[in-house]
Amino acid sequence: MKKLFNIAVIMFIAVSIAQAKPKCAVLPFKAKAGFTQEEADLLCNSYRDLLRKSGKYEIMSQNDVNVMIKTRLSHRAASLTPYYVIVGRTIKADYIITGSVEATTDALWLNTALCDVKKQRINRRIKVFYRGDVDEFMRIAPKSSIERLFRKSTTQPTQGAVAQKPALTPKKTIAKPKIASTPKVQKKPTKTSSKPRDYGKTLRTIGDYTHNNLQVGLRMSYYKLIDNENEAFLGSINQLKEDQDYTPHLFARIRLPMELFWISLGYNKLRAKTWTTAGSGSDPEGYTDGTIELSGPFVLLHFHSEREKDLQWFGEVGFAIYKADFIHNPAWRDARGHVDSHIMNFYDTYGLMLNGGCEFYATDNITLSTYISYTRVDVDMTYYLYDNKVRDSSFPLSNFGLGLGVQYRF
What is the arithmetic mean of pLDDT over 317-332? Predict the structure, then answer.
């Protein structure tokens, strides 16, 4: 009886220790360029086995992971909550590990992420690259990734015998008679040549950081003003006409810690002619006093769906900060022989932006995008006649647009 009691106590303690470990589930790795899904699954199984042997987590079974995947797919379109949070809560996991494997022109890559379900954030991203044989990569990549995942806990010095160097005995010195000598001139310290900087290593570090975390591209758009006719704009101005600018504008996109969210930074320009439909003798169809021009940077929160074959959907919301200018028509500005007799002074403003569209993968690094956009923006102004303020007014430049773009992912 005493022996059975001891066995029961030991089993109870073992179960308690096991339950104290945080639960972790490993999602099947995604196969990207250069790898098949079968190879990605083999790599994932090896990773899962090594992680289980590390004893850091209680690794959940493959059946639970399969339930997790179904749950993620059913909730993905209906919720903005990160999918690892949704599926982690479903099976009561503390952590989720996601991963992908791909081959670039110069290396093989295993990218993994440790996701905290409770705090809804990605704690660590591990990127392992290898230049060599695929079989060797399949063998060493999971081990290297897990070692880096627990680097803080596995790199502590271990206790053990350390070979000590024998103590040096001081040499006997013979006293020499003191001889008066002239003071020595202190030599200037010579500059030692510094170790040459390893620029290749710096570039590789930058490449590791930007890999799958940075996009750059060009965008061009066509827009249509929403409220472009009003008898009360200003004086005889009763219409606004779009002055399209098809120049492609540069933008950059930076990945946030949340897997599917990015920050887009770029530049936008918007132009509209002020128009009077009541024509004169020389301009029977109407004339313009000048062109309103808004230009400036924008910041957008970009979020997209997971890639489905060669297509993914995206949405963007944010704002633009515009510098406002008015390009006066010289014939109107210098009317009656008086330079700057008519002046419209426009004030800087901001606009709210909302975009939605899809991206098509031409290659694994290059995507083509098409989207529709809505921008909400008004611009205030003051009208001066012969240097005297006449009145204040506002012009609505809110618009819908269609856009095309091309992006390159590092």
Answer: 93
Give the alpha-carbon dihedral of 51, 55, 56, 57, to 10 degrees: 70
3-state secondary structure of 236: coil
Q: Is the whole model's pTM more than 0.85, yes or no?
A: no
pLDDT exceeds cutoff 90 at 370: yes
Query: How far is the CA of 169 from the CAs of 89, 166, 172, 317, in angstroms?
Result: 67, 9, 9, 74
CB-based contacts of 2, cutoff 8 Å, min separation 6: none
CATH 1.10.490.10 fits 213-409, yes or no: no
Q: Alpha carbon 118 to chain centroid distance?
A: 23
Domain spans in the chain, listed from the N-terminal domain onward? 18-152, 213-409
Whether pLDDT at 75 is above 50: no
Run of H or E including 110: strand 108-116
- Please, are residues 233 and 271 in contact by the beta-carbon 8 Å criterion? no
Rounded to whole angstroms, the Cα distance separating 85 from 121 reads 9
- The candidate with the shortest Cα–Cα distance to 219, out of 408, 407, 410, 409, is 407
Under CATH, what is the fold of the domain 18-152? Rossmann fold (3.40.50)
DSSP string, 283-345: -TT-EEEEEEEEEEEEEEEEEEPPPBTTEEEEEEEEEEEEEEEEEE-HHHHTGGG-TT-EEEE
Look up tokens 């856009």; give the residue: 403
